[in-house]
Design a protein that fits this description.
The complex is a heterodimer.
Chain A: H1 6-14, H2 25-36, E1 44-55, E2 58-69, E3 73-77, H3 84-90, E4 101-109, E5 112-113, H4 120-126, E6 127-130, H5 141-151, H6 158-168, H7 172-175, H8 188-200, E7 206-210, H9 218-231, E8 236-240, H10 244-250, E9 253-258, E10 261-267, H11 268-273, H12 278-284
Parallel strand pairs in A: 3-8, 3-9, 6-7, 7-8
Antiparallel strand pairs in A: 1-2, 1-4, 4-5, 9-10
Helix pairs in contact in A: 5-8, 6-8, 8-9
Chain B: H1 22-59, H2 62-67, H3 83-114, H4 117-132, H5 135-153, H6 162-187, H7 190-198, H8 203-214, H9 216-232, H10 235-240, H11 258-267, H12 275-304
The chains are: A alpha/beta, B mainly alpha.
Chain lengths: 289, 309
């Protein structure tokens, strides 16, 4: 795929980015943005610093430092077991639920340390998550969306909330006449978009997606990706995917992980056309993984 | 072995029959026979109950059985109304349900969702021990411990009463409710709970509004199966509830359940062929129909409302 025009690539090539220490993203991002979304200015939303993570004795993440930009789609790619899902789940403290898991380092969202300065429940109310396999609650479509809003003290008009969230998740037209139906009557792709709508109902600012299309067929995947691109206007999206083409289609920036380490993070188009690291190139060329 | 060039190509012959000994066929029959035993026994029991009950209903009309208000087959003035025995059974079952459903369900929730590994390792065997206590021990426990304790609270309480028996029957069926409910709760996929946590749900919110409702069919089934067990329970009520067929809803009174009546007649010197002897089959048939109905209901609920995650 190549939505980037050759001129843009040209511009990137002329941009100096030699230093390994200082990430070149800040200089590059505005250039790329002009191709995607010129109106927004870049700001760091999530800042991960020297993050180490263990499942029991096994170290899953090693010394990860990474900045995620606001209102961008950032993709995490890498072979199975590289820690990309683990890192994603560190961002909303879902790993707290795993017995024996241990974390060192800091994760800041808008400058707040989510591990030391906040309660996990509060963190999750601001950071939505969509899982690998659609996991709607065994309740009606309507109830699925209202559930999260209600426990977060939502006191507005639930009908409006349901419609707004379903519209944002591009599901409204398909289900508006059967909101009382059980969510399990929906197709897999619809269930996954319902899960997105459900996450949006608590009005998060960040949306984490853990291989959201891995259980979907190609048509449903396309619709989901369109939805993700729409969401970028309002939300900071982090998406884990094993599908490199998908990362390329939906993301503005891509981070490549290998055996628990962040190998590199650059604007997506650059990562796929001119990776800095040999391992990244080997992976995207399909030489392993 | 001597190199690739020596290996001749050959055709597969599918025409030969594989040899199967008699052994395989015999094993098959033995296994099928074992599987049939329980079915045959059930059929035989039902047949006996029906056959003997027909004899009873020839002497006592079904109408009398269902409309008379006294159960006095051993008296000179015989009455054959099932209601006193039925109400005794239902009263004990109701008390047992009030004890076992909340305690059983809450223990299941605790063990499945809250208890750490170490506590679980103590609690689960503890529950299983409770399930393994012989009912005669429970009966004595009701009569010699629970009743005196209750009497110290309510001095007017008699030695035999429905309350004490009901409480202890309830304790007896707690493990059943807890164990089946816990399985049902554990069967709710982790992903559903994670979805709830990811939306900022607290533990109690996720457990009470997602996990437990997701396990509802199994929980309801555990209730019904346990109650069906309570209805059929015999030893505790025989020892502690009394032997007075009594159409009452007062748990402080002495009553008699259907099962206890059957025991009473079976133990006595009631001659075969008398109307009293035949009456136990009619009572047994009633009991059989009720528990059968409840087990079927449990099956229907499990199948019909089974959540397909």
């Amino acid at each position: 795929m190549s939505t980037e025009s050759p001129e843009v690539n040209e511009v990137i090539e002329q941009t100096p980015h030699a230093g390994d220490g200082a990430p070149p993203t800040d200089q590059l991002a505005p250039t790329l943005m002009s191709a995607t979304d010129a109106a927004n200015t870049t700001r760091t939303k999530i800042e991960i610093e020297n993050l180490n993570f263990w499942y029991g004795r096994k170290q899953a993440l090693t010394d990860i430092s990474l900045a995620i930009q606001e209102r961008r789609v950032t993709a995490f790619i890498g072979p199975s077991g590289c820690g990309k899902s683990t890192l994603l789940r560190c961002l909303n403290r879902m790993n707290d639920l795993i017995p024996g898991a241990r974390l060192e380092g800091t994760v800041r969202v808008d400058g707040h340390d989510i591990y030391n300065a906040s309660d996990a429940v509060v963190v999750r109310r601001h950071i939505g998550m969509v899982f690998q396999k659609p996991n709607p609650f065994p309740k009606s479509i309507y109830q699925n969306i209202v559930w999260g809003a209600k426990i977060n003290g939502f006191s507005g008009q639930p009908d409006e909330l349901v419609e707004r969230c379903l519209r944002q998740a591009a599901l409204w037209d398909e289900v508006k006449d059967r909101l009382g139906d059980n969510a399990y009557n929906l197709s897999g792709g619809q269930q996954q978009r319902l899960c997105i709508a459900r996450a949006l109902a608590v009005e998060p600012e960040i949306l984490l997606m853990d291989e959201p299309a891995s259980a979907l067929d190609p048509i449903a995947t396309t619709k989901l990706e369109e939805t993700i691109l729409d969401l970028r206007e309002r939300y900071t999206v982090v998406i884990v995917t094993h599908n490199m083409h998908q990362a390329r289609r939906v993301s503005d920036e891509t981070a490549f992980f290998y055996i628990g380490q962040l190998i590199e993070k650059t604007p997506t188009e650059q990562l796929f056309t001119r990776p800095r690291e040999q391992r990244t190139e080997d992976y995207i060329m399909g030489r392993f993984g | 072995m001597n190199g690739a060039s020596n290996i001749a190509s050959r055709n597969i012959d599918l025409a030969v029959k594989a040899r199967r000994g008699f052994g395989e066929r015999i094993i098959r029959f033995v296994l099928a026979g074992c599987a049939l035993v329980s079915v045959l026994v059930t059929v035989a029991i039902a047949a006996t109950l029906i056959y003997e009950s027909v004899g009873f209903f020839r002497d006592v009309s079904v109408l009398r059985f269902l409309t008379e208000s006294q159960w006095t087959p051993q008296f000179v003035d015989k009455q054959f109304g099932i209601w006193p025995l039925l109400s005794g059974t239902l009263l004990v079952t109701l008390i047992a349900a009030l004890v076992a459903m909340p305690i059983g369900l809450f223990s299941a929730i605790y063990i499945a969702e809250y208890a750490g590994d170490r506590i679980r390792r103590v609690l689960k065997p503890g529950l299983e021990v409770l399930a393994g206590v012989p009912t005669v021990v429970y009966g004595w426990f009701a009569l010699t411990f629970v009743t005196p304790v209750l009497q110290s609270i309510f001095p007017s309480l008699g030695v035999y009463n429905a309350l004490s028996a009901g409480l202890v029957v309830g304790i007896m069926i707690i493990p059943m409710v807890a164990s089946i409910s816990e399985d049902a709760i554990r069967a709710v996929p982790r992903a559903l709970a994670e979805g709830g946590y990811a939306l900022g749900g607290t533990k109690i919110e996720v457990v009470s509004t997602i996990v437990v409702p997701g396990a509802l069919s199994g929980i309801v089934a555990s209730f019904i199966l346990a109650l069906s067990r309570a209805i059929g329970e015999t030893m505790i009520v025989t020892l502690a509830a009394g032997a007075t067929p009594n159409l009452t809803i007062n748990p402080a009174e002495s009553i008699q359940t259907m099962t206890a009546f059957i025991v009473q007649v079976s133990l006595g010197d009631t001659p075969h062929g008398t109307i009293v002897y035949k009456s136990i089959f009619a009572v047994g048939l009633t009991l059989f129909l009720i528990t059968l109905g409840m087990n079927l209901l449990a099956n229907v609920i499990i199948r019909r409302y089974k959540e397909s995650y």
